[in-house]
Amino acid sequence: MTDASQTDASPAAPPAASVEPAAAAKPADALYLVDGSGFIFRAFHAIPPLTRSDGTPVNAVMGFTNMLMKLLADHHAEAVAVIFDSKRLTFRNDFYPDYKAHRPEPPEELKPQFGIIREAVEAFCVPSIELEGFEADDLIATYARLAREQGRPVTIVSSDKDLMQLVGDGVGMLDPMKNKTIGVEEVFEKFGVTPDKVVDVQALAGDPIDNVPGVPGIGVKTAAQLIGEYGDLEALLERAGEIKQPKRRQALIDNAELARVSKRLVKLDDHVEVPTPLEDLKVREPDHEKLLGFLRQQGFRSIITRVENEIRADGRLVDGASAPQPTASTGEAATGEAPALSPTANPRAQFDGKGSYELVQTAEALDRWIAAAYEAGTLAVDTETDSLTACSCKLVGISMAVEQGAACYIPVGHVGPDGAKAEGSLDLVPSDAPKQLPVDEVVAKLKPLLEDPTVLKIGHNLKFDIQVFGSHGIRLAPIDDTMLLSYVLETGLHGHGMDELAKLHCGYTPITYDQVTGTGKSRVTFDRVALDKATEYAAEDADVTLRLHHALKPRLVPERMITLYETIERPLIPVVADMEAEGILVDRAVLSDLSRDLGARLAELETEVHRLAGHPFNVGSPKQLGEVLFAEMGLAGGKKGKTGAYSTDSATLEPLAEQGHDIVQKVLDWRQLAKLKSTYTDSLQQQIDQKTGRVHTSFALAITGTGRLSSTDPNLQNIPIRTEEGRKIRRAFIAKPGHVLLSVDYSQIELRLVAEMAGIEALKLAFREGIDIHAMTASQVFGVPLDQMTGEIRRKAKAINFGIIYGISGFGLGRQLGISAGEANAFIKTYLERFSELAAFMDRTKEFCRRNGYVTTLFGRRCHIQGIAEKNPARRQFAERQAINAPIQGTAADIIKRAMIRIPPALADAGLKGRMLLQVHDELVLEVPEAEAAKTADLVRQTMEAAASLGVPLVAEAGTGHSWAEAH
C-alpha cells in the first residue's frame, strides 16, 4: 500500500489541455452538477490503496480532490454542486422493496472516506447536497430542469447510464475519467434510442445491479428495436400480442406490470423539493487557511504545493505548518516527494540561473555543470536530436539537471535560419550561426562523467539516449529510467510518457515538442529551433525527469517492486539498445520479388471477385464492398452503421466465408495479401537503413500490460509464420557473409506455466517425462488411449490447450474446430472437470483481481486489469479473460527478459562473437559466425532453459540458417 504523499495526483483526471477550449466556450451561468457517488467510486478504484499518517485510508479522498480541483480549474466553473446519495432506502423502495437490495456493502476501506470527502467539498467552498429519501440522480434531474427553465446550460459530470435520460435541450454530460462529452449521439450509440426513450429501453432490459426486474429474455438491443418499432413502452405492451416471436410475445404479456414497475424505478424524479435553492449553487472563494489545513491533515503534499502556488500568484499565501508525514500501511516510513514543478532559478550561486534554465555556450560553464554533477552524485540527462531514428539521427544538444530547478542545455548541433552552423573555433563562425561548443569537445568533456560508476545517470526512455551517446563512443552507466520506474509500479493504469507522468506526479504540464518545433508543414527539426526556446524545453525535460525520479524511485521498496526493476527491467535497457543498433540484414531483391508476386496475385483475386460480383468495383472500399455483398447479392448478416454503410469487418465476413460464399473468401484472401504487401514487402524496402543495409526495429519497453516487448517501426513480431506468404517474407531476413542466423525459442512455455501456476499435477508430470502434451491431454479429455491417438483428436486437444490460456469461448473454439458451439462447450467443460486445478486457478485469479485490481506474475510484476468490476457483462468477461492470461503471458515475458540479460555476458565469457538481433515473444534471433553456430546454439539454449527454476522443465529449441525462414 502506498503512502498518500507519493501518489498525490489522480490517474482519473483528464488532461487539462484537451478540455480548455470547451471550457472557454461555456457561458458564465453554466451549471455543473457533479455525481458525487460516481466521483467517489471511480476515484477509489482508480488509485492504489494509500493511507494518511494515522492509518486512515485516503485514496478515494485524493482522487476525488484532484478531480474536483480539475473541474473547477479547467472549466472556470462558477456554478457547481456536488450531489451525494443520502441513504440506500429511497421512495422507490416503498413500492418495490427489492430495489438495489442485492447491492453489496461498500468496501471497508472506503467507508471511512465518505465523511472525509464531504469535508473536502466543504473545504473548497463548493455546495454539497443530499436529501433523505431520494437518490442523487433525482436531485440532479431536478436541478437540471430548474436551470433549463431559466435558460441556463447544464453539464452533468458523470458517466452513469441512468443519467443519460436527461441529455438534450441544453443538458449534456461529461465523463471526467475519459474527458469525453456525452450528447444525444453518444446516448443513441449506447442505447439505440434517443435520450427521451432511454427509460423505456431500461424498463424492458432491466438492471441486475440495481435489481430492476425488466422483462426476462429482453436485452438492451432487443428493447431498443422494440421501442423503435412501437414508439414507447405503453404502446408496445398494448400491442404485445402482435409480436411474431412466440417466446418474446409471451414474455411481454406475462411481465407487462413488471415492465411498468421497472419504468417507475428507472425514471428520475425531476420535481424534488430541493434543500438548497438553485441560485445558491455557486462556488465561493475558499478560506485558504482552512483548505490548507484540511489538505495537510490528509498529507496531500503535491496538492498543497499546487494550492500554495496559486495563492502565491494572487499574493494571498497563508503560512502553515508543514504537512504530516503519511505512512504506508505496511509500516514503511514515508519518503519525500518533489514539489509542484516550476522552472525556478538555480539554487546554487555559481550557476547564476536568475530565474531561468542555463544555456551553456562556453567550456567554463560546462565545466561548472560537470563539477556540480560529480558533487551531487546523480544527474538527469536527455539528448535532443534531429530525428527519432536512433541509429541515424544527429545529436543536436544535451540537457542536464543536478537538482530540482537546477538544469542546463548544451547545444552542439543547431543551425541558423540559413543553415549556418558553428564549426571549430567560436571566433570564426558565420554571423548567423548559433553560438555553441563543438560537439567533439562536449563529448570529450562529458564522457568521463557519463561513464563514471559513482554518478547515477537518470533519464526517461534512456534506451534512445544510450544509442545516441553510443554513436559518439559513450557507454552510459550506471542508469535509472523513470519511464520503467513508472511501468513496474503502475503497469496497465496509464501511459508512461514523460508529459503524462509530469501531470500525474508533479501536477505540471511541460512544454510540448509541438510548441517548440511547430506542427504540419511549418514544423522544423530541432536543430533549427532558436536556442532560447530549445533551452527552455530541453532543460525542463531534464528537470522533470529528476523530479519524477524523486517521486517514483522511493516507492520501489514499500511496493515490493525493487527486484523486478533492478534485476529485469533496468538491466534489459542496454541489451535492447544494442539489439536495435545492430539491426538485421534484409535482402531488398527478395522483398522486391515478393511485392511483384503479391501484386500479380492481388490483381488475379480482384478480377475473380469482379467476375463473381458481375461488375468491377473497388475491393478495398468497405462501402462499395458492402453494397455489392448485401444490397446487390443479398447475403445474410448485413448491418449498417451510423454512417449508413454496411459493416464489412472480419467478424462480419468470416462467418459468410465459412458458409461457402466464394466471393467473400476471395475478398478475405485479397485483404490478407494486400496487408502483407503494404505492411511488409513494400514498406520494409523503405525502412532499410542506407548505410547498414539493415532494418532497425524499435522495441517499446513500457507499452504492453503484461511486460512483453513490443516491436514498432517496423513491427517484426507480427509477420505471420504459419502461412506460406509469411515464411516467404522471413526469407528476406538474412545473415551477413560468413554468418548464419540462429533462432532459439521456448517450447510450449505458456502451457508449462499453466501447469506450474495452476498446480496441474498430470500436466506437470507429462512435461517432466517428455510426453506429447497434446496427445496426453486428448487422452485425458476424450478418453482415447495414447496408442490409439489420431491426428484429428490431438488437433482438438491442442486447440483447447492453447485456447484455455486465452479464455476461448465455446463459440470461438467451435469456429476453430468446425463444430457447434454446444459441442465445443462440452469439450471445455470436460477439460476443466478433468483438470480441476485449472478451474480453481482461474476462479482464484479472477477473485484476486476483483479485490486488488491487478494480477501478479511469478516474478512479482503487477498487471493492472481495467474493467474487472465493470457492470457491463461483456466488458467484465473480457477483463476476466485478461486477468487469467496476464500472469501466464507476463511470467513468460519475465523469463525471456531474464534470458536476454544473461546471454550477452555468457557469449563474451565464452569468447563467442554472436550478437542478439531480435526478440519475437518466445523466440530470440542471433547472428553468429558459421564456425561458432553449434557452440553458440548450445550456450543460448542452455541459458534460456536456466532463466527460471520451475516445477516443470523449460525447453528451448534451436535452429540455424542463412535466412530467418531457414533458422525457424
UniProtKB/TrEMBL annotation:
Query: What species is given as this protein's source?
Result: Skermanella aerolata
- Give start-end ranges for the coiled-coil region(s): none
Q: Which gene encodes it?
A: polA
Instruction: Reply yes or no: does the keyword rRNA-binding apply.
Output: no
Q: What is this protein called?
A: DNA polymerase I
Name a single GO biological process: DNA-templated DNA replication
Q: Report the family membership.
A: Belongs to the DNA polymerase type-A family.
This molecule's function is given as: In addition to polymerase activity, this DNA polymerase exhibits 3'-5' and 5'-3' exonuclease activity.
Q: Specify whether rRNA-binding is a keyword of the entry.
A: no
Please state every residue range assigned to the domain named 3'-5' exonuclease.
357-557
Domain (5'-3' exonuclease) spans 26-284
Name the segments for region: Disordered: 1-20, 317-351
